[in-house]
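re the bet — no i am not wrong, look at it urself. input seq straight from the record:
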Amino acid sequence: MSLADFFRREPKSLKGIKDRSGGTPGAEGALPPLKPITGEQARAALKRSRARREANGTA
């Protein structure tokens, strides 16, 4: 058998990459779902963050 024949042989399985790698969840699937926040909660968090940075002198 030549080297060219080695690379041209039939695969053991005719499954595609998607079928072979199907079962492993991505990183996003491993995280718990996040609850949606309101605009008011987002603004409050931004205010707390800015106050914390101001207190540390990094703003």
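see?? Helices lie at 3-8, 17-20, 27-30, 39-56. told u. also The mean pLDDT is 78. so pay up
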